[in-house]
Amino acid sequence: MDTLINKRIKQVLKGDQNAYSDIVNSYQQSLYHVCYRILGNQQEAEDIAQEAFVRAYINLHTFDPKRKFSTWLYRIATNLCIDRLRKKKPDYYLDADVPGTEGLDLYSQIPADERLPEEEVERMELKERIHYEISRLPEKYRTVVILKYIEELPLQEISDILEIPLGTVKTRVHRGREALRKQLGDV
Amino acid sequence: MDACPKNIVTYMHAHLDGDISATEEKELRSHLNTCGACQKHMSELEYVVHTLESLPAIAVPMGFSERVMLRLPKPKVKSSIQRWLRRHPMLVAVAIFAILMSGPLMSGYNSSSEFSVTDYPGLIVKDGSVVVPENETIKGDIIVKNGSLEVKGKVDGDITVVNGKYMASAANVTGQVKEVDETFEWLWYSIKDCVTGIFSSK
């Protein structure tokens, strides 16, 4: 797969834009899925995953072909996701009016991030429930848990993607698992 | 769980990551066999892992890659030109030199292949020939390109004829009369004209 991808990258760099669609087709599923799990909703996931592919295209000349392309691509996508999460992070009262938007409070702006009533959580299907619990994880645990368990990436690769030491990745995976254990045991 | 070894939870996670030594594994096993609380903890963690791993993949929305392709910028032609330029710096230098050198010369000469004349109200212009009629006095310089000039009256200024013939019957010209032929002379004339222009304007 990597030799094929490297061939396509060379073609794109020579000006053959159509060769890029092979690259998109090869990674769209995993990239979209990661974005979906990190961001929690499909609309933002599509937006950010597309943005990641566009940025990768624009910066393709900076990619080092000796490295793994998927690692580089995941890095772009996770950085974009984290930026997006930080932008919408609610650190004020949710029912306060948003300045400049009459009658809109923050509840209407934040999707699945806030806590749902317990009865509603109890009614959820398991896969819905775990998706919801992932979205409640702090962002740094959420990212590693998703890369490890949903993308099934080796810890070393996660460390390369997020540019954090391997030991930190391990700690975050542990804490993420513990947090999920507690959350799932809560209800 | 107070009596449990301090790092037993660490071992649990190491076990889950497949990152545990044989002795640690043994220690973990024997402890789990005797401690119900830790057993519960371990099985809850395994449940978390299992649920995470069983999460179904979400299908990419239809037309995703097409939409990505549409969002790509289109600098294709430009970038290939840029790459070419970067690869052949000498050729670029030579080409730029050639263009700069030939530009003014060619344009000056080409435009001079058409007939033109400095326009004054008294001049008679007909089929590439210009006549200053008798009884007429032109005040100013006359330049004729690719045509003949015949002076029957008076000219109060210089006369320049490029690629053409100058005829004067009465020769009533107060200034200089110049006839210029061919490219080189035209170029030389242009340069001289330009230089004198600079100095006279000061």
The whole-number mean of residue pLDDT values of chain A reads 86
Strand order in space, largest sheet of chain B: 1-5-8-11
Question: How many helices of chain B?
Answer: 7
Taken from the alpha-carbon principal axes, the silhouette of chain B is rod-shaped
| End-to-end C-alpha gap of chain B | 101 Å
InterPro entries (chain B): Anti_sigma_zinc_sf, Znf_put
Transmembrane segments (chain B): 90-109
Keywords (chain B): Membrane, Transmembrane, Transmembrane helix
Domain Putative zinc-finger (chain B): 7-39
Describe it.
The complex is a heterodimer of chains A (187) and B (202). By secondary structure, chain A is mostly helical. Helix content of chain A is 68%, strand content 0%. Chain A folds into 2 domains: 2-88, Rna Polymerase Sigma Factor, Chain: A; 115-186, Orthogonal Bundle (Arc Repressor Mutant, subunit A), CATH 1.10.10.10. Chain A is elongated and about 55 Å long. Chain A starts with a helix and ends with a helix. Chain A has helices at 2-13, 20-39, 42-58, 69-88, 118-123, 126-136, 139-150, 155-162, 166-186. With 202 residues, chain B is of the alpha/beta class. Among the domains of chain B are: 8-53, no CATH class; 116-201, no CATH class. Chain B is built from 7 helices and 11 strands. In chain B, a hairpin with a 2-residue loop joins β2 (124-126) and β3 (129-132). In chain B, α1 crosses α2 (22-34) and α2 crosses α3 (36-53). Chain B starts with 7 loop residues before the first helix and ends with a helix. The mean pLDDT of chain B is 81. Chains A and B meet through α2, α3, α6, α7 and α9 of A and α1, α3, α4 and α5 of B. Chain B: The chain crosses the membrane at residues 90-109. Chain B: It comes from Kurthia zopfii. Chain B: Residues 7-39 form the Putative zinc-finger domain.
